[in-house]
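Human: Not sure, check this?
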Amino acid sequence: MQSDKQLTGKNKQKFSGLFWAAVGFTGIFSVWAVLSPNTLTTTLWDWVYKYHANFSWFTVLMPLIILSLCLYLAFSKFGKIKLGGKDEKPEFSTFSWMAVLFTAGIGVGLVNFGVAEPLSHYLNSPLGLAGGHDEVTAAKNALSMTLFIWGLPAWSIYTISGLVIGYFAYHKKAKFLPGTPIEQGFKHKKWGRPVGQLTNVVAAGAASLTMAASIGLGVFQVKNGVQAVTGMSFPGVTSSVVILLIMFAVYTSAAVFPVQKGMKILGDINVYVAVALLLFVFVVGNTNFFMSTIMSTFKSTFFDIIPLSFESYTFFDKGWFFDWPNTTFIWWVSWTPFLGIFIARVSKGRTIRQIVLASILVPTLFLIMWFSVFGGFGIHEAIIGNGEIVNYIINNPDDVYLSFIMVLQSLPWFPIMGTLFIILIIVFLATSATSAVISLGILTSDGVENAPPYRIFIWSVITTMVAFANVVTGTLNGVRAVAVIIGIPYMFFLFLAIAGMFRQMRKDYREGSV
């Protein structure tokens, strides 16, 4: 681990400048969100929709472009390149590595939207009931659209962000910074360095604000779960603050431990609990229906991605298209600053081919099963059941998160499964938060491989304070708007970084250095 004493005075200056720039960038939007949440939310979402109105065609196509680049890297001559050199050994077992990759990237959204998103597409998308389709076709299309948003496209965005940072960090001995591929790949250009530095500042702001919004959503989910399991009501903000402090203790403890310990433990727990819940609903629910749904969704996930990537619903109302595929894809991009650093950090000793296949295919296959079971349960209940869950979503379009708990409540052993649900939310959120604050520590420590624990702790406190302010004031929609608006320019930085990596890879391959 590189300590402060090992950092030169010049590097300390760089750290100090980047740290304060990142804190200032984060603070401006956070204070705005607390003091004038309505103004912030209205202004930023207005900007987002103006972007959508002009460039939604690019946003929906962008993940397919990145997926194609990932597949090219995996199966080309570059696929055999190992991060860290030919003799480098992985720090994690294959299971723990994949668990960490998956749980850091998916976060609490897996539970927040596991039931709600397929039902929302079933009701409101041009491919659903709102588009004039019958119930069966709308159900199939809803799951296909859900996996289009959460499956291969999302994980290709995360993967490429890790590869561009990892390649320069391990093969060029460069810094673990999102701007490094731009600085190094375009170092002969005058704009390379300033654009790279700007990328780092925006990355830190995106990471902290995006994570703060996710933490806030997680607090409400845990509170919903506790209320459902205990049958007790917890009005006011005191209970939310207590939950937030518990989560802070969990992810801060994991973050200050060596990454091989803290993240490994959280990742393994996440997988075990998530699989336990999934298997329970699969076995106790309509197993035959779930199997049929899994097979159908598997097919559509891999065969519908190209037509869906070229569909911008020109002759339909664009409200759903802007709110779901477009906004969600940009949200994924806003996660890449810290996920890119984190994926690079935990993938040392793995080849590019292994990273691409593991970090794209494995999560996607799990998500096919997850959404087919939980989302399929909600759709099945809407078509031939009493419609309680779908009616809840119709009547509460801005608070759909209780739908997941409603699935568990309709099955036996809810006190046990509900408790597992609460554990899953806390650990899922802790895994994502841990990866975020570790990455922020690395980013503002001049890109060292292992940031000093106190810097990680500082970012854990800052992120939690932003989440605290927004939980208390109820301004999470404003923070989400900030994360999305930051993701729009960050798409440009990401493509510049990808271009920088390809330039460097070709040069290194010609010179025989890889």
